[in-house]
From TrEMBL:
InterPro entries: AlkB_hom8_N, DNA/RNA_pol_sf, RT_dom. Residues 28-294 form the Reverse transcriptase domain. The lineage of its organism: Eukaryota, Metazoa, Chordata, Craniata, Vertebrata. SUPFAM superfamilies: DNA/RNA polymerases (SSF56672). It holds the Pfam family ALKBH8_N. This is Reverse transcriptase domain-containing protein. One of its GO terms (molecular function) is 2-oxoglutarate-dependent dioxygenase activity.
Length: 449
């Protein structure tokens, strides 16, 4: 039997000869709502989540599926997306065009920062962890939701068969387990799995306007805006979310779920712990959210310190390239791919509000790289301005409705802020930047005649 790599080369070289054959197979599969077992066969490769795994939960199960099935899944995925409303689940930022982790983080921080600008206000942020989220999908429950979303019955039936009776083996090194048959879950590694999970969770929404739910695949964050110490809505929202998880067979891992309380009030009292399923959620001073360290004081010291450490480590390899006689062009490419990409990761989130000392920890890395390569490189501030401009113009073109024009149509409406913390956040910085651009740089569709 050919490996996936060899089969891929055969399919590519013989595409013209095989296209009609596979077209017939795909059409028959869709008509009969049956997926051949050989197309569903999955090999699971356990990939460690941490450097020294100590238990099964420290591994991520990555599924290797047939290349033919991946091609088929892409066709089905394209069809499903074409039938869904574009406004479905606006707070799900994963697997969506022109959406990124930056959008998700900004969407979580903006309401929090805006609320903290008021008196007698604080914020509780719950960072939820699910246990093997993709593996707990119940096919019948998913297809019922898809039917309500308007996905046609033949596709729903096909998906039901696709997710049922899946032969699966586990391979670790040279050892392969016996085959078992699974009837739940969508394997990580399948093309359709991310889309199916987001459709399963599209109805996981907030009940109270004082709470905001931000989702990036299975990374879910609940932001509770608390006024005058009244946490009733927030705690009720957590209870409803817990019930939703239970009803949808999602296992909420309370042990890995973290909470941050952001409270800048003077002399504030001790906050009562949050209880989920009889277990107190751990309250932390800082946690990692979509690759960015969020702290209870909303400073970026922990995050920039982490970036500086990674950047310094990668400078070693840049020096090795220099000693081996690599050209400036090659070293610049390496720098942009391995160092600049780290330093500028989600920079629109934290770049405007980081302190001088935060920048001081990062800029020397750029300066050192410049000396090693011997060519000019963008400074950290230039990187921030470039990314801020690009992200802001993308948002305008994508009609996020974060910014509104004044009646004149020439400037965007500025937002009020009492604190520097809010004033330096992404949304406020973006509006100020937009108002400095000439009309030629702005999409004409957003400027009224």
């Amino acid at each position: 039997m050919l490996s996936n790599g060899a089969l891929g080369r055969v399919l590519k070289d013989c595409a013209e000869e095989l296209k009609d054959v596979f077209t017939d197979i795909f059409n028959i599969s869709l008509e009969q709502a049956i997926v051949p077992s050989c197309f569903k066969a999955t090999t699971i490769i356990p990939v460690p989540n941490k450097p020294s795994p100590s238990c099964f939960n420290d591994y991520r199960p990555i599924a290797l599926t047939p290349i033919i099935m991946k091609c088929f899944e892409r066709l089905v995925m394209s069809h499903i997306k074409s039938t869904l409303p574009p406004t479905l689940d606006p707070f799900q930022f994963a697997y969506r065009p022109k959406r990124s982790t930056e959008d998700a983080i900004c969407s979580a921080l903006h309401p929090a920062l805006t609320h903290l600008d008021k008196k007698d206000a604080y914020v509780r942020m719950l960072f939820i962890d699910f246990s093997s989220a993709f593996n707990t999908i119940i096919p019948q429950q998913l297809t019922c939701k898809l039917d309500k979303l308007g996905v046609n019955t033949p596709i729903c039936n096909w998906l039901l068969d696709f997710l049922s009776q899946r032969p699966q083996t586990v391979r670790a090194g040279n050892n392969t387990s016996n085959t078992i048959i699974l009837n739940t879950g969508a394997p990580q590694g399948c093309v359709l799995s991310p889309l199916l999970f987001t459709l399963l969770t599209h109805d996981c929404t907030t009940t109270h306007s004082t709470n905001h739910l931000v989702k990036f695949a299975d990374d879910t964050t609940l932001v509770g805006l608390i006024t005058k110490g009244d946490e009733t809505n927030y705690r009720e929202e957590v209870d409803l979310l817990t019930k939703w998880c239970r009803d949808n067979n999602l296992l909420l891992n309370v042990g890995k779920t973290k909470e941050i309380v952001v409270n800048f009030q003077r002399g504030h009292t001790q906050h009562l712990p949050l209880i989920i399923d009889g277990t107190a959620v751990e309250r932390v001073s800082s946690t990692k959210f979509l690759g960015v360290h969020i702290s209870e004081d909303l400073s970026w010291t922990a995050h920039t310190t982490s970036l500086a450490k990674k950047g310094q480590q990668r400078l070693y390899f840049l020096r090795k390239l220099k000693r081996s006689g690599a050209s400036p062009a090659i070293m610049t490419t390496f720098y942009r791919g391995t160092i600049e990409s780290i330093l500028s990761s989600c920079i629109t989130v934290w770049g405007g509000s980081c302190t001088h000392s935060n920048r001081k920890a990062l800029q020397p890395i750029v300066n050192t790289a410049r000396r090693i390569i011997g060519t000019p490189l963008l400074s950290l501030q230039d990187l921030y301005i470039t990314r801020l401009t690009r992200k802001t113009l993308t948002i305008i073109k994508d009609a996020h409705h974060l910014f509104s024009l004044l009646p004149s149509g020439r400037r965007y409406r500025s937002l009020r802020s009492r604190t520097t913390r809010l004033r330096n956040s992404f949304t406020h910085q973006a509006i100020r930047m937009l108002n400095t651009l000439s009309p030629l740089h702005l999409p004409t569709t957003h400027i009224p005649p």
